[in-house]
Prior knowledge:
462 residues, alpha+beta, Uridine Diphospho-n-acetylenolpyruvylglucosamine Reductase, domain 2, Uridine Diphospho-n-acetylenolpyruvylglucosamine Reductase, domain 3, Alpha-Beta Plaits, 4 domains, seven-stranded antiparallel sheet, five-stranded antiparallel sheet, globular, binds D-malate, binds zinc ion, Vanillyl_alc_oxidase_C-sub2, FAD-linked_Oxase-like_C, oxidoreductase activity, FAD-binding oxidoreductase
Amino acid sequence: MLSDEIYQQLAALVGDKKITREATELSYWGKDSTSLIANAAAIIFPQNIEQLQAVVQLANREKIALVPSAGRTGLSGGAVAAQGELVVSLRDMNSIKQFNAVDRTVVCEAGVITADLQAYAEQQGLYYPVDFASSGSSLIGGNISTNAGGIKVLKYGMTRQWVAGLKVVTGAGDILDMNKSLLKNNTGYDLQQLLIGAEGTLGFIAEATMRLTRSPENLTVLLLAVPSLSALLQVLAHFQAGMELTAFEFFSEQALQKVTTQLQLQRPCDEVGQYYTLIEFEAKDEAIVDQAMALFEQCLEQGIALDGVMSQSQAQYQSLWRLREEISSVLAQWQPFKHDLSVPPSQQGEFLLEVEKIISELAPQYQVIWYGHIGDGNVHLNILKPDELNKTDFDLSCKLLSEEIFKHLASYQGSVSAEHGIGLLKKDYLHYSRSDLEIALMKGIKQQFDPNGIMNPGKIFS
Ligand code: MLT
Ligand code: ZN
């Protein structure tokens, strides 16, 4: 915990109004979207990179552990101050500084809200394609620190692909200004890439140059009800071979039931499937729409789709997407045990069936909900907490279940965290996806960037 003296020194760096240790503020700012409990010493809001650097330098001198905080939408506990750390929120460093139309880049501070960057890009006639349900509250610095993925990875890749330059304050308190928009830059190790997805364990993202791209034309979705998992994967193969897609998402009938019931939404089509796919593409001209319809009809003829609907307006496009994007927040009331897994796309069918078998054998009373980004190999497994169990007992039993699931995952060379990061919640499972040598090298890199071990200690590994 911070002494009064250190607290006053920190206040002198940022101003009295930009630091707090008021109890309600501590519990709000000290955590992310997980159910982990915050135990923060104080929250500080630097206003610029110089103040941020001064805070990190003081933290080095006084050996104060820091937790970087952005939009607090994370699902792995990466932004949770669980051990009396000082939370450093980048919320106030939120200006969009500079747009370059020729390079198609925009410089923004870490605290810019993802949706604001998307809107800014649109004002310039361009597009920032990394997108997910929490884009209205997540911050670009957090997106970079977690290498956020989302619903359009199939076409556009993850955040890493859109970072053209980074300005960071390292854990040692130095400022590194890296790359500055170059597309080609083969000058040794790419240090910038180490900070992307490092979950704040190496330093703070203070500012980023983000790439933009051309705006997609007339995005359209086709929602299909499919009879089985194997049919779903055949539909995926069929559409991928037949046309260019911008997203291919899926969710189960149970997920659809929860969303439509809780939010009082219409079911999208008459037939009931075991799963539903949401296939997005750019309907640039009539020929593309005809092609999508032809593929849809072939799926119906082959019995791998039962029914479907194609969006005919922007409103319908949005309401179909809502059925997918609301799943996570609707399920929150069942306090689900969440996994965010990936295996090579070709092995997903086999893997999902094995996971279902493990759960039905070891915990048949648990309801399992699948959804996610099946087009890029990333599925979200949510196990719902039964009312009669308390959260601690439920989590404990799910952890035992997880070990079994991860043994199978490892045999597919899968990832224990495809897009949500390791944080606190997944670090016990890191060894299923990373070798001892890889983990030792990661620790060595941390030592270089953060010699006093003040940056987000205990996250990713102990
Ligand atoms: C999603 O795809 O909806 C997000 O990753 C959130 C979640 O997994 O619950
Ligand atoms: Zn996701």
